[in-house]
Structures
1.
Amino acid sequence: MADPLTITMTNRPPVKIDKDKWPVIASSKSFQGEHEFQANWKKKLTVRQHADGRTIIYGVYESSYRDSRDRRAGEMVQSDGTTADLVGDTAPIIEAIIRVAGYLEFDRQLADECIADLPAVEI
């Protein structure tokens, strides 16, 4: 595996992926502070999609506050035969973004920003 990444999933064991084979197709983040590297907390949602259409949606909350614990969650949306270039029905991906954000207690705006960052669907 050229560039491995371990992703914490919700209610199942973590998965390990090759980042080169699972490119980011959407993301959003927020943090408290003027600069991200100095932030008291960070929230991030990420959507990665494999060429076979499988999609992983995951989120991370990191805190520098004493006695605060980092939180992670993720879900996989199974392929329906579409490819990364042809996203197809995005409803399952959008629903998973909202669930992951809710599980991590992120505000809806962060989920909406991640949804808005998804590739545009031609109609």
2.
Amino acid sequence: MTDILEKANGHHPKGRAVPALPEFTFPDSGITVGLRRFAPDTQDQITRELMRKNPAPPVPMVEGIERADGTFEMEPNPADPDYQKEVMAYFQRLSVETNAKMFDLALRRIEVEVDQDAVDRYKEDMAAIGIPFDAETDDRTIYIRHICISSTYDLSALLAYLTRRSLPTEVAVQEYLDSFQRDVSGA
């Protein structure tokens, strides 16, 4: 990982300074990785796309006001208890799916040197209990998913970090706001 951080602390080939890669330490495994930030809109974009592919349940319609001709005008009933349960379940699923996509994206953005000895031992242990890894599963994925993330706490901490680090910093927000300030003192 030192090589990765040295490259990140160096300079971009086009002459731009490259900021240090943010580090994240898994609280239970104690392993530190480099993890690139996500844009502030990334989580929202993922959620919007998941909602587009799988829309929320439709609001049930009920008979409302009676018309002059004796028919009833249909109107939405968002207070229907069954609908409320469906919506709650929908948003819970959406949250889980969004977190899963954020995690998949994080796996792609993590920079880490794989501890090959640890991976080999883990593969041997899994094979010994009759659950070998698929030959297509690469060592980097095994290292991150099963060694770096050694507990549900490690996973929860990573997801919390991703969400928190994807938000703009106070300094960035202030710099953005300052960019709109003009001298209006009569110049």
3.
Amino acid sequence: MTTNEFTVGDGQFTIKSFGNGWAYEVVDNTTNNNLWFQDQDAEFLRNNTADFSDIIAVSLFFEMLCE
């Protein structure tokens, strides 16, 4: 069950929050790649992207994990 969905980076990324931050699905809308984070990984993602406001940091997750 999605509890929140929003876009960041002028629509480049869609973030879906599950369980009030227990898990996140992050979709790169330009490539249609998606990443899933839950538990401590979700907290790590949120903290290291400044609550998804640091678009460069969000992009780096895709660069590191999707290559």
4.
Amino acid sequence: MTVYDYLKSLKMDFTSMARLFGIITNDNSYENLTFENYITKSRKMEMPKRFMIPQKNLLDLMTTINKMVKHESCPNNLRNRFYNQKKTIIRYMLRDGRVSDIYGQGDYYALIIDGKYSFHQPRPFLNHLNFEVKGEQEYKSDGISIPFDEKTYTDFQVLYYIYTGQFRQSREGYPKCPRWAKKSKKEANS
């Protein structure tokens, strides 16, 4: 099975497929791959046998990574990427009604996801979203940091791209493949 066929089977939007391709191939040069190059390269490459989707919970990993990015061993670019990804996940989960018990805490919101995962998000990151704040509290930071682990971070990245790609594909109707992309003969006939 080609990488293209494997990723297509996950029913994600095209952007997430291209990003996940870079992780699967373990090649950072594919991180900002154009769609056209992604199609060309992924259709020629067989799916590596070593790649497996982590059998972990996205929010468990997000909790762990949230502690890792506070440690001095975490590279700044990965810290910044995580915070943007965390914001996206929380926004999508707000839309899905999975976020509850939202409290204002100074410049932040304290949120509970799925009744057990607690996160803070700067107030401006959640602007223009429809939610109800239960009240104001004093800001409480857990202040816990743990050393950075690249494997755990990569596991989170895989689950992040799958979650957000499937969310966008199913909820927002992004096309699986841009119109301009050349389709294979098999796809054109289906």
